[in-house]
């Protein structure tokens, strides 16, 4: 937190999942990396007793409301997503004379420049964490509220990454910090379209319910690859991490066919072929279906070569970097 005389500022990073998507929702570990795109929230008192919310998406619009006994009374009803998010937050009850609270929410770094395209880097988790903290809540409350905001879906890996920063091994809300191997080089690529994570998680959960035996087989395969990737990070083994990410990418590709959801879109398929031809690794980060992918290589030169090929093919390299700091 950064504080001036009247304003307090908070921020938390987004995330990229390196390995463990889908499986992490069923209790297996995942490796997740905090990246240098941050949600930022500032808090200051208002000039009257009403609370106020402003967003970077519509900075000229003030969403004003009062809260009594935990219930919000809007002066003017906002869009559904803003209302749902705001009504979950731990606002203080509106006092008779006390000033209200104004929050300014900024998620500009989670969008393509000069675009309304959201990148799929965990913005809702980092924003919920910073906004809850700005209003005096703790990490446990932020995690609970984000789970509610997501419709009780997801594992919590995204908000845990935002809170801790760096590279973490996450499993059932337990976190262990790790380091990326020194001979592991990566970059994130925007595939050109946004994806709705909830659609893929619902398809996955439905498939598990209908095919428990088949899932057990898939689960065992995933567990072996994830465990080997964790060991590779522990042993500073970049080639081992690459090999297991490549195998897990193929596991995700197969899973898409099983659950009848396009985890690998045509864009992912194209980028996979480019990476294979260049001796690099391509893998969706997150649920797939669009959004972000990661291209990885064992040397900086190899990474630069494949990134140039990807750029020449019309895709956007996001130039992300790890963020060792979590919530601040």
Characteristics:
328 residues; alpha+beta; Ribosomal Protein S5, domain 2; 9-stranded mixed sheet; 9 helices; 13 strands; 38% helix; 24% strand; globular
Structure commentary:
The protein is an alpha+beta fold. It has one domain (2-317): Ribosomal Protein S5, domain 2 (2-Layer Sandwich), CATH 3.30.230.10. 38% of the residues lie in helices and 24% in strands. The strands form two sheets. Strands 1, 2, 3, 4, 5, 6, 7, 8 and 9 form a nine-stranded mixed sheet that branches. Strands 11-12-10-13 form a four-stranded antiparallel sheet, with helices on both faces. It is globular and about 65 Å long. The mean pLDDT is 93.
Structural class: alpha+beta
Individual helix count = 9
- Overall domain count: 1
The overall strand count is 13
What string, H for helix and E for strand, traces the elements in order? EEEEEEHEHHHEEEHHHHEEHE
Radius of gyration: 21 Å
Helix content: 25-40%
Per CATH, the architecture is 2-Layer Sandwich
Percent range for β-strand residues: 15-25%
CATH class: Alpha Beta
Q: In whole angstroms, how far apart are the ends?
A: 5 Å
Major sheet summary line: 9 strands, mixed
Say what the CATH topology is.
Ribosomal Protein S5, domain 2
Query: Given the C-alpha coordinates, what overall shape results?
Result: globular
Low-confidence stretches: none
Name the average pLDDT.
Answer: 93
């Amino acid at each position: 937190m950064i504080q001036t005389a009247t304003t307090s500022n908070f921020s938390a990073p987004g995330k990229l999942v390196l390995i463990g998507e889908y499986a992490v929702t069923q209790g297996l570990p995942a490796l997740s990396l905090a990246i240098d795109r941050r949600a930022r929230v500032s808090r200051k008192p208002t000039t009257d007793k009403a609370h106020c919310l402003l967003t970077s998406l519509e900075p000229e619009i003030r969403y004003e409301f009062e809260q009594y006994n935990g219930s919000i009374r809007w002066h003017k009803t906002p869009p559904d997503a803003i209302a749902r998010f705001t009504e979950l937050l731990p606002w203080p009850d509106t006092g008779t004379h006390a000033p209200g609270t104004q929050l300014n929410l900024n998620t500009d770094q989670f969008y393509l420049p000069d675009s309304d395209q959201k990148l799929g880097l965990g913005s809702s988790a980092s924003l919920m964490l910073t906004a809850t903290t700005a209003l005096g809540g703790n990490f446990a409350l932020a995690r609970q509220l984000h789970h509610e905001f997501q419709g009780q879906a997801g594992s919590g890996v995204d908000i845990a990454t935002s809170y801790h920063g760096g590279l973490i091994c996450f499993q059932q809300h337990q976190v262990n910090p790790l380091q990326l191997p020194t001979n592991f080089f990566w970059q994130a690529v925007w595939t050109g379209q946004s994806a709705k994570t909830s659609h893929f998680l619902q398809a996955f959960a439905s498939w598990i319910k209908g095919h428990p035996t088949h899932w057990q087989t898939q689960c065992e395969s995933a567990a072996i690859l994830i465990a080997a990737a964790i060991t590779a990070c522990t042993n500073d083994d970049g080639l081992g991490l690459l090999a297991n990410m490549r195998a897990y990418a193929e596991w995700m590709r197969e899973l898409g066919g099983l659950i009848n959801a396009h985890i690998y879109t045509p864009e992912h398929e194209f980028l996979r072929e480019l990476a294979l031809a260049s001796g690099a690794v391509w893998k969706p980060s997150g649920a797939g279906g669009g959004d972000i992918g990661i291209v990885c290589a064992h040397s900086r030169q190899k990474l630069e070569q494949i990134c140039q090929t990807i750029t020449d093919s019309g895709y956007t390299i996001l130039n992300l970097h790890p963020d060792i700091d979590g919530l601040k």
